Each structure stands twice: as structure tokens, then as C-alpha cells.
Fold this sequence. Notes:
Elements: H1 3-9, H2 15-22, H3 26-35, H4 42-45, H5 54-59, E1 86-90, E2 93-97, H6 128-135, E3 142-146, H7 155-166, E4 173-177, H8 180-183, H9 190-196, E5 202-206, H10 216-227, E6 232-237, H11 246-258, E7 262-267, H12 282-292, E8 303-308, E9 313-317, E10 323-325, E11 328-332, E12 338-341, E13 350-351
Parallel strand pairs: 2-3, 3-4, 4-5, 5-6, 6-7, 7-8
Antiparallel strand pairs: 1-2, 8-9, 10-11, 11-12, 12-13
Helix pairs in contact: 2-3, 11-12
Amino acid sequence: METWRRLLADAVTTADEITERFGIDAGQLAPVIRRYPMRITPGYLRLVEAPGDPIWRQCIPDPAELCDDQQSDPLHEERLSPVPGLIHRYPDRVVWVVSGECAVYCRFCMRKRQVGCMTSRHCEDPFGEPLRYIAETPAIRDVILSGGDPLLLDDERLEEILARLAAIPHVEMVRIGTRTPVTLPERITARLCRMLKRYHPLYVNTHFNHPREITAEAAKACARLADAGIPLGNQSVLLADVNDDPAVMTRLMQLLLSIRVRPYYIHQMDLVRGTGHFRTPVATGLEILTALRGNTSGMATPHYVIDAPGGKGKIPLLPDCISRRGDLWLLRTYTGETIEYRDVGQPATVLPG
């Protein structure tokens, strides 16, 4: 068995295992785990220094997950899905959910309703419908493989996807979204990188949220990908009591550049059911962006974005490019609409562009 498969098999999945390690009441965790599964790889769990610290908050279930009345799919991914597993929000690109599992089930996951809970669809060609849709839609030039985590597929299945996409003339690029360099860096093997290298142009966006996640093992994984000629980006999520501090986020962005990963996005926490305890005010993100701009390299300054509820896409925020009306933020969407956005809840109104 490959090392990464063995480590995945050794992952912590039950409340009793957390109780044995940290001495907390398993009764607090068990009901959450029944609703939203837990999986934590041995390496990621070793990064926890104490209950409640920034790593703990990202991977250990919290009873607050069951006390949130937001929507389970506020970005309307299911409504924007023309065939199972494919999300077509923007004209020239699609997100293809190729896996329903992750090495670590992050407690703030935007697809909390699905990841770790999805059942396999048994059919002769599980990739057939998405590939047919992509092939029959010439406007699609960019395919983003997502999940779950695409790199939890074995090399052969992942290569099948990449090869079949490469055979579609109008697909110009493929992106892979993965957190394995953070949560299971052993997955980034030399064999995997040799295979990926055959399918350029290929981009990888990973997901570091805190400086302590940038370990020697994570740096080695990113180096292997970069040495294979794959440009690396990072998408962080702004999380309460994890990275909602200008000094923490600045250091994270600087360390990312040191391991050849370009900061790409800081996401405002999505309004997803079960994640409300992670949300920060929009003003917090603007404060962090202000601290980054001019105080560290421009390369270390990502876009701060809100993925607008209702499937209206990502909206970049700048301290001097959005306005406020009372308790509402006025945001301009990529389609030219203006949205009134509350920090908690759905946008109140869509105004004429």
C-alpha cells in the first residue's frame, strides 16, 4: 500500500479517538460527527498544539455546527449543475466535482452538505456525462477539478480524466483544487508529478489558512509540483480565531511565497449552514487587505473576494472600491449588477447595473 493510502487509513474518524488524545467530552463531538463526518490525518492532527487553537478549530467538530440556520447550498451550485457533478456558473469555465472525500474534513467546508456524505454513483462510465457536456459546449475553455479533493483519486483515474479533457479541442487549461499539500503532503509523490507534467497547461490551487500549516513536508510537496512546471496558487478562507488577524495573514502570505506558492484569494466565509461560528465581518477582511497593501510585497497580496449568494460569482473587495449603506455593503458583480450584502444572511436586493 502506498504511504499516503496507509496514512489515510490511519486517519482519526471517531469522537473517542479525540477524547483519548485530548481528554475532552466525546458527548460534545459525537452528534456533530453523525451529521458532518470527521476525518483527520495523523500528520495534520500533530499540528494541533492545544484545544481551540487555529488548527484545532479547522478540523475538530464543534457543537456550533448544529446551531446554524443558513442554507446548505447558498451559492446555488445544484441549480447551476447541468449534469451531475458539474457546476457551470461562468460562461467559459466549469467546476467538476470529481471526488466526494478529503484527507481532512474541514469544519468550514463550502460543500459541507456533500463532502464525506456523498454516495458513489455506480455506472459504467462515471465521467461520461460531464465530459459529454464539456465536449458539446465550445464556450468552455477552463475546467476546474474540485471535490472533495481530486488528488484523493488514484493516479490512474486522475490521468484518465486529464487525458480525456486533453482530447477536447476547446479545453485550453485545467486547474486542480486540492488541500493535500497541507493535510496529506505524502500524496504528492514523484510518480504523481511525472504524470501531471504530461498534461500542461495545468495549474494547482491549494489551500493554506495558517502559517503553522506550512511545514517542511508541505514545502516539499509544493516543491515537487513546482519542479514539474505546475504554477501554484493559494486560496485561503478568512476564519474567526484562525487567521482573522493582520499579522497572522501577512506571515501566511509571506511564507507561501517562500515555498513557491502565489497567494491568489482570501475568501470571505460563505454563508453555508454549519459554519456560522467561523464568519468574520467584511470589515475584518478589509482591515487585513489594508495591512497587506504597501507593507509587504505586492506578490503577497491576494484578492479579497465574496462568493455572492445566489450563484452570482466572486466579487473582489478593495478598501476604496466598495461602499456601505447602513448595515449593508454595496458590491458590484461580474455581470454589472449591484448587490446589497449583509454580513449575515442573504443579499437583500439586486439593483439595476
